[in-house]
């Protein structure tokens, strides 16, 4: 009876060890970094500890890649939404022009257009010049995005344009 129990236990233990060995072999076959030959090891089989560590490293790499791809997808979705909005706006402009092709022709001179553009750019440059340090490229790089986020918001740009148009209107009248 004891002999039979010992054989059953030995067989079960061998089966367990074989399953573990197969698991490590499968990991080694799946994980790309385990398949790369390390010349310092030569043709020796990788130890279980190295297989586990390389597997962990590879999973962490995959998680980082997934996060990067998710961020890229999110950015692309935002870009698509912005492009759709722009498309609708351009379609409305084209439709309005097709409905009344002569409306708005030659109503605004190039000089007035330039004065509007110059007024907007002067206002933006003044805020840029006051907010941005250009003593080094590193400081410039660090400040530019925060300036854009603060001073190029749609509401802020709208206020600048309205102010410039009021100023030009008072000059022309």
UniProtKB/TrEMBL annotation:
Chief subcellular location: cytoplasm
PROSITE patterns (alphabetical): BHLH (PS50888)
GO cellular component: cytoplasm; nucleoplasm
Positions in coiled-coil regions: 59-86
Native source species: Nothocercus julius
Entry's Gene Ontology BP terms: positive regulation of transcription by RNA polymerase II
Annotated localization: Cytoplasm; Nucleus
Matching Pfam families: HLH
Organism superkingdom: Eukaryota
Name recorded for this polypeptide: Max-like protein X
InterPro entries to which the protein is assigned, alphabetical: bHLH_dom (IPR011598), HLH_DNA-bd_sf (IPR036638), Max-like/E-box_TFs (IPR052207)
Assembly with partners or alone: Efficient DNA binding requires dimerization with another bHLH protein. Binds DNA as a heterodimer with MAD1, MAD4, MNT, WBSCR14 and MLXIP. Can also bind DNA as a homodimer.
Membrane-spanning parts: none
One MF annotation (Gene Ontology) recorded for this entry: protein dimerization activity
Function summary: Transcription regulator. Forms a sequence-specific DNA-binding protein complex with MAD1, MAD4, MNT, WBSCR14 and MLXIP which recognizes the core sequence 5'-CACGTG-3'. The TCFL4-MAD1, TCFL4-MAD4, TCFL4-WBSCR14 complexes are transcriptional repressors. Plays a role in transcriptional activation of glycolytic target genes. Involved in glucose-responsive gene regulation.
